[in-house]
Amino acid sequence: MITWPNFVSQLFNGLALGALLALISSGLTIIYGTLGVLNLAHGAMFMLGGYAGYAAYQATGSYLVAVLAGSLFMLVVGVVMERLIIRHFYTRPLEDQLLVTFGLGICIVELVRLAFSSQSMSVPPPPLLTGITSLGFMLYPTYRLAVVGIVAAALLALYLVLYRTRLGIIVRAGIEDSVMVDSLGINVDRVFMTVFGIGAMAAGFAGIVNAPVVSLTPEVGEAILVQAFVVIVIGGVGSFPGAVVGGLIAGEIISLTSMVNPAYAYVMLFAAMTLVLMLRPHGLLGTRGRE
Amino acid sequence: MSAKRRHDEHIPYIVETLTAIALIAAPFVLPYLGSAPNTVNRILVWGLFGIGFDILFGYTGLLSFGQSALYGTGGFVAAYLLTRAGFPHVVLALVIGMVVAAAVGYLIGLIALRRTGIYFAMITVAIAEVFYFVEFNPLSEWTGGENGLPGVPTPSLDLGVTVIHFTTGWSLYPFLAFCYFLGIVCALRIVRSPVGTVFRAIRENPLRAAAVGHNVHAYKLAAFVIAAAYAGFAGGLLGVLQAFMPPEAFTFETSGQLVMQTAIGGRGTLFGPLIGAAVWLFLQDFLQATLKLGASWKLVLGLVFVLMVCFLRQGIIGGVRDLRDLVLRRKSAPPVPPNDVVARAAGAETYAAHSVVRAPYADHANADYCGPILRATGLSKHYGGLAANAGIDFEVRRGELRGIIGPNGAGKSTLFKMLTCEVPPTAGSIVFEGRDITGMSVTDVCQLGLTKSYQVNQLFNRLTVRENVTIAVLAALRGKFKLDLLRSRSKIPGLHEQIEQVLTLVNLADYPDVPVSQLAYGEKRRLEVGLALASSPSLLLLDEPLAGMSARERAETVRLLKSISRDRTTIIIDHDMDSLFEIAEYVTVLHEGRVLVEGTPDEIKADARVQEAYLGGVREEIPA
């Protein structure tokens, strides 16, 4: 039975999931847009971020430390991965890029499994954000409400970096035409490293913030990666606003369908993706010719 | 591969025979190496699954991460028929599963192939995930949900006198080995058919494959359906092998394992997936049972895979091939090293003497049309506020050799792109041989007999010179789409002659088996013209055929252009005005997106407006 409060609370769930998907997908999309590499290890990075946060929480007992340490750790992981492996693949065919990031994703998942076992772990939300908040007409878990705010703040930060800094201008120019940026004498090499690091950090951050909502398992990244793909197809590759819009759409579709029948959540998501492909093959906010 | 392929051509069915021998010998040899029969059977199923995937990924260049959807579909359809529906005939159930998977593959292909590259990879992943969820929930009444379908029977063969039951282990092996053998024989036929050649063309350069007249989308869809059929059949075999159809067949992990096995074994080899599966499953057994690594075996395999992708790009088969080439080259240096440009240039000297070969010329449908072969009216192209071409009226008579000149940015290449329908005009119309071709696809226009050679080489780089020309000739002889999957290329009438004709004409007949990537620049340029020529066009557009050539190459190419234009209407863009004035009968000058003037070379040379356009205001005398 669908009741009004039930509907609104699912709407909020959709918003939280959507914001999270937006953050993960924007990392994926700026990496692809700038470096030209579709990072199939992105889901694994989301998962690894969650575990890094979990480890930091176990050591310190502080949620804040967990978020900060986890994010920084993922920044380092991203930079190291880019320097050691990814950068050798910029000139290699697209298939090789997909294969190597796919393989790296598996290595990360199996490493985590080795270190933390396959059992699910959980991080409690910070004491300040536990419990339930009354929104007047309904009750809603405080932390989930906070997730929307935290992720929105992270998206805003990403927006400011992309649209208000020198690095952001280079990244956006690189998405348009990376050869041109290179020939302007900008050190693309270092920009690439930074972008990959930021993308990894965004995924890891999302992973930690999400950890108190769902329990952590090594497989948690796989489903998220698939959802992020749908987000990108809907929003358009290489588009930051597209990732945000696509993320919110996908989050609401999953959430609202789950209210009726969770089994059809993916079917509806897929139907939406197909619809977009039929009507606007380049995504809602994507540009023609960017593949 | 090249040496191997040449080998195949000398001894027919050598690969098939060797495969049969290996499959027959396996049960006698492998037990001594300590392999369990069940592992060998699983390798065969993965190998068969991988044959189709290799045609899709290794040959056509489409990397799908969603093959599990088709593997599961075929498997569950067959298993459902054999268990719940009480269907008695195992082989027929497997075939029905295969057909259903192929049909589903067709539908998935329609959606996924709307985009290429990473979009294709992402969409296939998403589709496979949907199938996984659908199997588990909405369809769980039919598929058993997370329990799968137990009790799948094994096949038996009624020989009249006696009935052979294939049960488990080595008893099931002959059945699986026979299926694999059939699969490989079909795949070898497909790969050697004209369709197989087009698949490789699409992998190397989809744009050019479309421009020489192949319906790239239809061929991609064909590759996708072929892969789906193999996946569906292999999925059915998985149920037979395990006497149980596991829901795990639908997981992303299945697709991933297939991709990894194919990359480890070697893509584009057909046998790569089998070898990859053997490495994968033996290593898994070894790491788990012998080294007692427990669950971390997958980490080791993941690391092996990453290292292979980094350092052994073409997988194990590719590595062995490189090693063999290295040894062979050391043993016997080839008489003419493929990179010896000087030797080839010397050969070109003698070329002028025998340039009597006539270019191929096919009669296209509208050959009895008498008016101008090409008429463009009011042709404009705007990019945002920029007008590359504005209101161009342009007419070419049959048999003419027209030159187009103009300063940089005059809109010459944009005009060509519109004429060949690579880009749609903003306004205006194009009539070719009395037929309005405005808005048609580049493939259809090429099939009508209008094509061009590109300003920047658009070749099939990893294929040989002969294969490049073959691709273009096939489009001319077979039309834009034909599913002659089992036909040998050598059985197409006129193919060989036309290829040789083109090769001789562009003076590349002496080294047809050299990969394009090893050619000198001038040779690539001639091959570029050759590709356009091989489509037997009645109207040929050449976009700067002389650009970047040395003086000697240029003289040789001018001779080539003259001989080409004897048999067809030709339009040439070039910056080299001396060469162009020498060969063109009539010249159109473009300036700032418009036709400035048209006339004979002598008229153009004397025209003050042309001089002004090129030199900028020489008429304005400086007042004394």
Report on this model:
The complex is a heterodimer of chains A (291) and B (624). Chain A has 291 residues and is an all-alpha fold. Chain A has a domain at 20-218. Helices cover 73% and strands 2% of the residues of chain A. Chain A has a two-stranded antiparallel sheet with strand order 1-2. In chain A, strand 1 and strand 2 (139-141) form a beta hairpin. The longest helix of chain A is centred in the N-terminal third of the chain and has 32 residues, at 4-35. The mean pLDDT of chain A is 87. Chain B is an alpha/beta fold. Chain B has two domains: 2-31 and 39-326, ABC transporter involved in vitamin B12 uptake, BtuC, CATH 1.10.3470; 374-615, Rossmann fold, CATH 3.40.50. Helix content of chain B is 54%, strand content 11%. Chain B contains 25 helices and 14 strands. Chain B has helices at 2-10, 14-29, 37-59, 68-82, 90-112, 117-136, 140-143, 173-192, 194-204, 206-211, 216-242, 252-265, 272-290, 297-311, 315-331, 341-349, 412-419, 442-448, 465-478, 495-505, 521-534, 551-565, 577-583, 601-606, 608-615, and strands at 149-150, 156-158, 163-165, 244-245, 374-383, 386-396, 401-405, 427-432, 435-436, 450-453, 539-543, 569-573, 586-591, 594-599. In chain B, a hairpin with a 2-residue loop joins strand 13 and strand 14. The longest helix of chain B has 27 residues, at 216-242. Chain B is elongated. Chain B starts with a helix and ends in a 9-residue tail after the last helix. Mean pLDDT of chain B is 86; it is low at 1-8, 333-343 and 345-356. The chains are: A mainly alpha (291), B alpha/beta (624). The A-B interface holds A 32, 38, 85, 88, 92, 94-96, 98-100, 102-104, 106-107, 110-111, 113-114, 118, 222-223, 225-226, 229-230, 232-233, 237, 262-267, 269-270, 273-274, 277-278, 281, 291 and B 57, 61, 63, 65, 111, 114-119, 121-123, 125-127, 129-130, 133-134, 136-138, 252, 256, 259-260, 263, 295-296, 298-299, 302-303, 305-306, 309-310, 313.
